[in-house]
Amino acid sequence: MAPAIMLAADAPRLSSANTGFMLICSALVMLMTPALAFFYGGMVRVKSTLNMLMMSFISLGIVTILWVLYGFSLAFGNGNSLIGYNADWIGLSDIGLTELWDGYTIPVFVFMVFQLMFAILTPALISGALADRVKFSAWALFVALWATLVYLPVAHWVWASDGWAFKLGVIDFAGGTAVHINAGAAALGVILVIGKRVGFKRDPMRPHSLPLVMLGAGLLWFGWFGFNAGSWLGNDDGVGALMFVNTQVATAAAMLAWLGYEKIRHGACTTLGAASGAVAGLVAITPAGGAVSPLGAIAVGAIAGVACAAAVGLKFRFGYDDSLDVVGVHLVGGILGSLLVGFFATGKGQSTATGVFYGDHGFDQLWKQCAGVFAVLAYSLVASAVLAFLLDKTLGMRVTEDEEISGIDQAEHAETAYDFSGAGGGVAGTAAAALAAAQTRKVDA
């Protein structure tokens, strides 16, 4: 189809409102990586807390530099169906300050930094599956290689105008395939290569700080509004507002559904379940929220809440050590959210495409969603496993068994998260003070 002739008066103009909105959304998405660090950090044992925080935090440094050097060019430059390239964007060397992004009313720099925050978060999501056992230096190199060889091509497929999935009509509003399936499949690929933690299925590996988990989940929920609503790059037609509403609705439904599953299955509603259920809902609505109604968002969230709660137990049945349930929440939640678009898309949101339950009740959109889901899953799983295998055979991915048992924080970072030594120093300090008091009483007697 020939492009429509656009008069100069009709050409998009920079919108201060949309630009400011997108900068705020970018900051919210940036907050999600430290929030993820808290969420994961509270779920591990005390001896792994700092390492878990750092595995997320280091992504802020590595991916930012790569994105400036070549990442934005490869992900969003005009190339071919598989990868992009724009020489002017290498090093962000030739972008005008007021140059607009591809027919929108925001500068290229604003779109660039918004997408940067997605690129930072995605490899950080993988880290939760690898808790307690991965060398920090090997992880840092894996982040750089994975972002380059896996994330950038997949982001181009899904979101660039010449990417094959975009041209096919796959709906992924804010990252069900490019972020969550991509990270979840990568997590599965890596843990199949590096193996289980020492004591998996034998030793208790309970979260050391549930308040920290709840804090992280709350900050993720907050930041996710920027992640989702911002992905429409403005709100001139109300689609961004729809996504904002659906984000809240689906997350609430998923949390309640997870807690209901827990109550029926285990007899209690746990704080960890509430936090995990909320994240499952956020994951599932990410690809679907611009295409479904609020009632559809309730269905998406509720289905994801139950399915992800059931899926986290599969690691014990099949013997893969997904430490913090990245596969059970992000891979399963991303797959469900992406496929449910094919059932609940109303044709009244981001596009006129309808799902099985709307319009002519056809399966056309569902087949497109299946193509996107399984292509990303297969590519990320295989490519990530190969990367992990090569790094393991060269640098070695895992710390030694002794280091894992004694604590990866001390081995890899020469620090501990909490100081329990000395009087007044937590549990150990309290115990020492009690012992000293008892000895004093004995001498006096």
UniProtKB/TrEMBL annotation:
Transmembrane segments: 20-40, 52-72, 104-126, 138-159, 179-198, 210-227, 239-261, 268-289, 295-314, 326-346, 366-391
InterPro entries: Ammonium/urea_transptr, Ammonium_transpt, Ammonium_transpt_CS, NH4_transpt_AmtB-like_dom
Domain Ammonium transporter AmtB-like: from-to ranges: 21-418
Top-level lineage group: Bacteria
Record's keyword terms, sorted: Ammonia transport, Membrane, Transmembrane, Transmembrane helix, Transport
Subcellular location: Cell membrane; Membrane
Membrane topology: Multi-pass membrane protein
Pfam family, one: Ammonium_transp
The keyword Transmembrane is assigned to this record: yes
Family annotation (PANTHER family): AMMONIUM TRANSPORTER MEP2
Similarity field: Belongs to the ammonia transporter channel (TC 1.A.11.2) family.
Protein's name according to its UniProt entry: Ammonium transporter
The organism of origin for this protein: Streptomyces nogalater
Lineage, top ranks: Bacteria, Bacillati, Actinomycetota, Actinomycetes, Kitasatosporales
